[in-house]
Amino acid sequence: MSAVQILKKIKKRTFTAVQMVKYFLLASKAAHTETNCITEVLMETALARAKQLDQHYADTNELIGPLHGLPISIKECIQLEHTYSTWGYASWIHSKPRDKTAHIVDIMLAAGAIPIVKTNVPQTLLTPETSNLIYGICTSPWNKSRTPGGSSGGEAALIASGGSPLGIGTDIGGSVRIPAHFSGIFALKPTYGRYSLGLLGHTDHGNRTISAVFGPMGRATEDIELFMKVAQEYQERVDRAMPPLVWNEQITSSSGPLKIGYVVNYDFFEVSGSCQRAVMEAVDALRRRGHEVTLFEVPRLSDAISYYFELLTADENHNILSYLHQEYLDPSLAKTVGLMKINRRLQRFALGLLSLIGYTRFAKTNSSLSTNKTVLSVWKYTHAMGQDVLALVAGTFLYNVINFPAGIVPVTTVKQEDIRPRTERDLWDKAANRIDANSQGLPVGVQIIARPFREEMVVRVMKEIEQALPFNDILPIRRRLLNFQ
Fold first, then answer.
1. Helix residue ranges, H only, 243-330
2. Are the C-beta atoms of 221 and 456 separated by less than 8 Å?
3. Which residue numbers delimit the Amidase domain (predicted)?
């Protein structure tokens, strides 16, 4: 049941807010048992708030707001008063609970939502998997040997498992989109500057070249749209400095023909067979609906890798290294942090060594850059995770660099015929072959991109693809407890 459907049933008094909170607390517990997706359970405050909302509705016959009684989940790094935000840093394990709440959470509270849990993150928030030494490893609900992605991996695992109808993640390079793609759910990264980001929470306070944004994550496009609409309508209550924009429902409900470009491959790395098929299935679906869909090639995407990491680590990793000083490192970060600490002469040597041992494309991507920050970050996003994530991340973080809104729609699952061993030119290809092996059944999504401040267009196309290719109808997620359909 989608968040929109839940809210309709609460309004009709089919269910109460208390019933919904109890259900999702139980469902989230079951999800956590399988995936280790939760960091904190907010049972007492959630039930107390649900009782207040039910009493208000009974007394006044009016809802608090458009999200009245809806349970939601929140990524661990996002500030919420009286809860913990360690961002996966073991050295922050003894930090006090937060005394403030992020603007986006205040907006959701004002609209009537009820936070029930906070969810797992990777150490530093900068890796596309979810693992840290405080809460442990979060696994995919589809396959425990796989990752749900990162850095909003806890949110993705929880929502895909049916433990939350709607969640709030953050995205600085794909951190809501990668987990959504890995986990078979929906997500959207908005344009930086459209929504208030006050007290959102991110590791690198000193770097504003690329800023994190919040991103809704859910089980249906209508839930993503609801979240974005509420955030737009309510944000003046918490941040009057934001531009007075409105959510344009004429765009999201329009059915006129569009001109759409599609990308099926990269200039520096061959996309997996399942991802190529997913794109073409979406293309065919859009063409059947009367849209003009044309092949588009992203020029010099490999250069964007260098630019992104140069911007992201503009302080030469000083903040990250200071946070990691004298603390144990998660295994996925150990090599990366070790490389961050070496001097520039050794960094150039490392670049040459990477080329010699088979990381030719790593070296080529970074050959024009003299500092360590890009070389090491590229290593981090590929080798340290033991999977081919660089190609994936390049296709997501590009839209953080140029500040375009981007959404993810699940389309299909990997089929055996998609798994085609590629010629092993270097270690990237070897890693890709290892990852593709036994990947059948895992979810595959497509990314929808529009120009800045055109989130409505992203949502419109997401809706059309979801309607044409209803992924939730084939979800193999095991259902537990009660069925509220």
1. 249-252, 273-288, 301-312, 318-324
2. no
3. 20-458
